[in-house]
TrEMBL record, chain B:
Pfam families: STAS (PF01740). InterPro entries: Bact_StressResp_Reg, STAS_dom, STAS_dom_sf. This is STAS domain-containing protein. Residues 2-113 form the STAS domain. It comes from Adhaeribacter soli.
From TrEMBL, chain C:
SUPFAM superfamilies: SpoIIaa-like (SSF52091). This is STAS domain-containing protein. The keyword Phosphoprotein applies. The keyword Phosphoprotein applies. Transmembrane segments: none annotated. Residues 159-270 form the STAS domain. Keywords: Phosphoprotein. It comes from the Bacteria.
């Protein structure tokens, strides 16, 4: 895997969300991702950023353009120092939520992107990494 | 504070969302719309989202809330002009906006609202007829 | 640092190239129909040059190093090109492997009296060329995979036409297996056509789908949901008896979706929903009126 570009953005307030979404769109457009795949990626990013603001009072996002086996894609890493998730398996189940949302957050987000991984230590924080390839496969 | 303008057209309220929504703006819209529905006793709400490129679960929930709240106040809600990419993403996300009417564009949305209201009036008339009979 | 082999190659470059060409051409399976001689000569010379440069840099074992970059580029180009033109893997592999023989010949002539050096150099060249030929195979296969991927995309594009059957009614005959990549394309095409034509009804005909399992059903339900979000209605037609059976046996709930057995009855339902009436014309009475 080759890293083409790298950038990081702090997300501390709700006002940071729109510029962040635009930044993701810029990256996706740069590698020629189709509109549907762009929309999926940005929506997934939007869900994760909201989680970060809601549960951990913000955090930071690493934005990367990567290439693997001749495929290019966008990789986003969301890092926070929030309370963490106790039971990740449970959090990844459809319909589960501790907040007052629809509970589509994590599993729904996972369905939108090609690769999804989550690491969390209770009391220390959560890191979610998503990757979406140019052609969505 | 940023607000999205709401237009009143006869018995209907019209909202065209021209910017990408962030949470505060969406919440304001929900509040403003519901206040307007109760103030004007509107029979229908039409929300045009043809310029919106991202609808995530939060905004989907706001749209659903507006529909449910309006319904309690006897107004129908129709969301029009959703972009294909947004529709595909919402379905993948698992959000199908149950209880929200949809239409392709503003024109068809208006038609739909008029039909719905026409039907509602018809139902009310039918309901009143037997009452008249007993009076006689 | 210069090693013995690179000196030998530098000294006998012309002969080595010539004998390498000969070895390539004696291979019975060489596809002279696919390749022209000048091109082959050019490619061989280019490769030999970059091989020599790499050797002279002193690196004799790691083909992933920077010095071997020109070689990897040349080899990659050649194997991808051969994959596209329909060469067999054997023909592509022979290209590199036959260089081995000519190099051995040259080394043998040079070091006939020094078996120790000869042995060491042959092992070295052998290992190096083996790695290079593995690399060639890898790129060759990658080149083929690209061809396959492109064809898959093309098939997907072709096999999902959206037909406008009436003002406001679209039909989509789906033929073949419906997997998630395909569903994506079907959905995109359908939704785009809905916007473009302002249609309010779409008929998804699945007569050509060989089997419906729970995954396919889920894809269908997704397509219907997305259509509804756009403000159009979706009818699924072409449900054969065995498909109805599997759907019920698998416990898939399609009760929220309008389904019809044939495209004809779906079309009738669509007309109904749009308030269109199709009537048989009485030609005779018209003629008599004239």
């Amino acid at each position: 895997m080759i890293q083409i570009s790298k950038d990081s953005m702090p997300i501390l307030r709700e006002q940071d969300v729109v510029p962040f979404r635009n930044r993701v769109r810029e990256l996706a457009t740069k590698i020629g991702m189709s509109l549907v795949n762009q929309t999926k990626l940005i929506t997934a990013a939007s869900e994760l950023v909201r989680n970060m603001l809601k549960y951990a009072n913000g955090g930071k996002v690493l934005l990367e353009l990567i290439s693997r086996n001749g495929q290019t894609g966008v990789r986003l890493t969301f890092e926070d120092q929030g309370p963490g998730i106790k039971d990740i398996d449970l959090a990844m189940k459809d319909g589960f939520s501790t907040g007052k949302s629809l509970g589509l957050g994590l599993p729904g987000t996972k369905r939108l992107v090609n690769e999804f991984s989550i690491k969390s230590v209770p009391g220390e924080g959560t890191t979610v990494t998503i990757t979406h390839w140019k052609n969505g496969r | 504070m940023d607000r999205i303008p709401i237009l009143k057209m006869g018995p209907f309220l019209l909202v065209t969302i021209q910017v990408d929504l962030y949470d505060r703006l969406a919440l304001n819209l929900e509040n403003d719309l519901i206040t307007m529905v109760s103030k004007t006793e509107a029979k229908g709400v039409l929300i045009d989202i043809s310029a919106v490129s991202i609808v995530d679960s939060f905004m989907g929930r706001i749209l659903g809330n507006i529909a449910s709240m309006s319904r309690i106040m006897d107004a129908e809600t129709v969301v029009v002009g959703m972009q294909p990419a947004v529709a595909i993403t919402l379905v993948e996300l698992g959000l199908t906006l149950q209880g929200v009417h949809t239409a392709l564009n503003v024109e068809k949305g208006m038609e739909l609202l008029q039909n719905k209201i026409g039907l509602n009036l018809l139902n009310q008339e039918e309901y009143q007829e037997p009452a008249d009979d007993t009076d006689l | 640092m210069k090693n013995a082999t690179s000196k030998v190659i530098r000294k006998n470059k012309a002969q080595i190239l010539e004998s390498w060409m000969k070895y390539q051409l004696t291979d019975e399976d060489l596809r002279d129909d696919l390749m022209n001689m000048e091109e082959l000569h050019g490619q061989s010379e280019q490769l030999l040059d970059s091989f020599l440069n790499a050797l002279e840099s002193g690196n004799m074992n790691d083909i992933n190093a920077r010095e071997f970059e020109p070689i990897r580029d040349t080899l990659g180009e050649i194997s991808v090109m051969r994959a596209r033109r329909g060469y067999s893997p054997r023909e592509t592999g022979t290209f590199v492997l036959s260089l081995k023989q000519s190099l051995f010949d040259a080394l043998e002539k040079e070091f006939k009296s020094q078996p120790e050096i000869l042995y060491k150099e042959i092992i070295l060249v052998n290992n190096l060329l083996d790695s290079l030929s593995i690399f060639t195979f890898e790129t060759f296969i990658k080149g083929r995979e690209e061809v396959i991927l492109r064809q898959t995309d093309e098939i997907n594009e072709i096999s999902t036409p959206v037909i406008r059957v009436w003002e406001g009614i679209l039909a989509l005959p789906i033929i073949g297996t419906l997997d998630s990549a395909r569903t994506q394309i079907v959905m995109e095409n359908l939704l785009q056509e809905i916007v473009a034509t302002g249609s309010s009804i779409a008929i998804l005909d699945i007569s050509g789908v060989p089997a419906v399992d729970s995954l396919v059903a889920q894809h269908l339900i997704k397509t219907v949901s997305a259509t509804r979000l756009m403000g159009a209605e979706c009818i699924i037609s072409g449900i054969r008896a065995e498909i109805a059976q599997t759907i019920v046996h698998l416990g898939i709930d399609l009760s929220n979706i309008k389904t019809k057995a044939s495209l004809a009855s779906a079309l009738r339902l669509a007309y109904d929903m749009m308030g269109v009436e199709v009537k048989k014309m009485d030609r005779r009475s018209k003629i008599s009126l004239l």
